[in-house]
């Protein structure tokens, strides 16, 4: 195991289906997933960004408002339950809650509280913006060839009255925590598998030719609401996500799993692709993952040795909402 140079290790992924370069590809998921779309675009594939920024925004403004991060402006979708939720709202005529959070005269969407950091001017503007995103999801899923979804967490906070799932605990990024209303959930393999299965079924009901490529984020937890050590909670979370994704991929020809988690965290790679904070993945690590991805698509068996980073470090945690839990006693 120690003999090959780690950068020469290859054959880590043999795709189950072809991703045509001209077919629209959608990306969604946790903060690590934001690297995938731009990398696909750089490689010449048809990554579809369906909510374009208004003209005149600077690069920093586009990033702060989360344009160009994922195919849809949903913000980070950390859990399978959240993916199922967004697709149900967009594709299955399930009404999204009309709750809006008001802080100092600015209005925020509880289900993507970081997408507009300065908030909206009114509650109706929040709901109108959400309708735009849901309409974009409907159009994009109907036309796409492949959806790449990166699973990030098993931990989530749920609203008891509506049954909906929040991206982060209310009262951290935005909102107010209510112990009588907001409950903690740590999903099991069965939970994640059920939510993934339902999400894939929703998407393929409107687009039967759609394929789904699942990945697991290598970014560890910095905090947990379980009361356990973050290291133990991370191992549980990633194990559950990997098992559920693998199970679904074994069950369906139209679902595959790509080992981004293993490529970054595997013992042959000695953790070299993490930033000094041991959480964020370096640009060269992202490049290494994507080179394995493209090598697999092209049917190449050689190792995916990187020749240099495809981007620059962006602070890593700045777009990872869950990182703020390190500063709150949310559990």
Structure commentary:
The protein is of the alpha/beta class. It has one domain. The chain contains eight helices and nine strands. The strands form three sheets. The protein has a four-stranded parallel beta sheet, with helices on one face. A three-stranded antiparallel beta sheet has the order 6-5-7. A two-stranded antiparallel sheet has the order 2-3. The chain is globular, with a radius of gyration of 19 Å. The protein starts with 24 loop residues before the first strand and ends in a 34-residue tail after the last helix. The C terminus is likely disordered.
Within the largest sheet, what's the order of strands?
A: 1-4-8-9
> Low-confidence segments, ≥5 residues, pLDDT <50?
306-318, 324-331
Strand residue percentage:
5-15%
Would you report the number of β strands? Answer: 9
Major beta-sheet overview? 4 strands, parallel
Structural class: alpha/beta
The outline comes out as globular
Helical content, roughly?
Answer: 25-40%
Could you tell me how far the N terminus lies from the C terminus, measured between alpha carbons in angstroms?
41 Å
What does the radius of gyration come to?
A: 19 Å
The SSE string, one letter per element, is: EHHHEEHEEEEHEHEHH
Q: Please, what is the average pLDDT?
A: 89
EC number: 3.1.-.-
GO molecular function, one term: hydrolase activity
Enzyme class: hydrolase
Keywords: Hydrolase
């Amino acid at each position: 195991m120690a003999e090959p140079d780690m950068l020469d290790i290859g054959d880590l992924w043999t795709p189950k289906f072809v991703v045509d370069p001209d077919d629209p590809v959608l990306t969604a998921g946790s903060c690590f997933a934001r690297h995938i779309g731009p990398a696909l675009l750089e490689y010449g594939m048809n990554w579809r960004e369906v909510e374009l920024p208004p003209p005149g925004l600077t690069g920093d403004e586009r990033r702060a408002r989360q344009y160009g991060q994922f195919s849809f402006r949903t913000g980070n979708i950390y859990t399978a339950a959240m993916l199922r939720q967004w697709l149900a709202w967009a594709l299955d005529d399930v009404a999204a809650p009309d709750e809006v959070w008001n802080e100092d005269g600015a209005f925020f969407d509880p289900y993507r509280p970081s997408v507009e950091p300065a908030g909206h001017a009114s509650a109706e503007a929040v709901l109108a913006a959400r309708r735009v995103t849901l309409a974009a999801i409907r159009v994009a899923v109907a036309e796409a060839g492949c959806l790449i979804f990166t699973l990030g967490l098993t931990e989530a906070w749920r609203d008891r009255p509506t049954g909906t799932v929040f991206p982060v605990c209310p009262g951290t990024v935005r909102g107010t925590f209510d112990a009588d209303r907001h409950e903690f959930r740590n999903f099991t393999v069965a939970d994640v598998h059920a939510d993934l299965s339902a999400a894939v079924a929703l998407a393929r009901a409107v687009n039967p030719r759609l394929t789904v490529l699942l990945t697991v984020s290598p970014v560890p937890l910095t905090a947990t609401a379980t009361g356990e050590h973050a290291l133990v909670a991370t191992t549980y979370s990633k194990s559950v996500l990997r098992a559920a994704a693998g199970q679904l991929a074994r069950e369906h020809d139209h679902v595959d799993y790509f080992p981004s988690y293993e490529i970054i965290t595997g013992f042959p790679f000695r953790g070299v692709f993490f930033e000094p904070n041991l959480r964020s993945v370096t640009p060269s690590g992202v490049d290494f993952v994507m080179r394995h991805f493209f090598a697999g698509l092209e049917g190449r068996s050689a190792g995916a040795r990187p020749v240099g980073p495809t981007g620059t470090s962006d602070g890593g945690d700045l777009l990872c909402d869950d990182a703020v839990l390190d500063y709150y006693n949310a559990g």
